[in-house]
Amino acid sequence: MASAPHIGTLVPDFTLPGGVLTGDRFERRDYALSLQRGRPLVLAFYPGDDTSVCTKQLCSYSSGLEQFQDQDAEVWGISPQDVDSHERFARKYDLRMPLLADTDRRVARAFGVAAPGIGLRRAVFLIGADGTLRWKHVALLGATFQSLDTLARQLADTATA
């Protein structure tokens, strides 16, 4: 498994296809990390669409988007499923954050979260507006996830650091 970016280092750029549910439309486009510069970003890697823990995690983040937006941050969910799967998942649970398709697990490998057998480890990376990694959590087991409150607190802490 590749080494994840280290705190304080520039996060490697990537571009992935994805989409976001806006109203009743699922808007597809490519998402480039470099185009997000100037705003904090939460990258939430999750193993699979419409699975028990992943559904709880992304529903929690989606329902609490205003806490991220209050800190001028955006949240991107990343998993190995394709954009069609992401659209079904977003529509089923009314998820309002971009869901990105890392079907070849290239980005998961670059972040050190690719895992044989399960695809990828559940992980969260907080990237500062300057593109550097400010905080991360990579789960050994994917049975739990970082709470909305934890992420909001970490965002606030990194903004003042």
Quick recap:
Helix content is 29%, strand content 28%.
Determine the fraction of residues in helical runs and give it as a percent range: 25-40%
Overall SS class: alpha+beta
Low-confidence stretches: none
Major beta sheet, specifics?
7 strands, mixed
| Helical stretch tally | 5
How many beta strands in the DSSP annotation?
A: 9
SSE order in H/E notation?
A: EEEHHEHEHEEEEH
Strand residue content: 25-35%
Gross morphology:
globular
In angstroms, what separates the terminal alpha carbons? 30 Å
Radius of gyration: 14 Å
The whole-number mean of residue pLDDT values reads 89
Strand order across the biggest sheet?
Answer: 2-1-5-4-3-8-9
Structure overview:
The chain has 161 residues and is α+β, with helices and mostly antiparallel strands. Helices cover 29% and strands 28% of the residues. The protein has five helices and nine strands. It has a seven-stranded mixed beta sheet with strand order 2-1-5-4-3-8-9. It has a two-stranded antiparallel sheet with strand order 6-7. Strand 1 and strand 2 form a beta hairpin. The longest helix has 13 residues, at 148-160. It is globular and about 35 Å long.
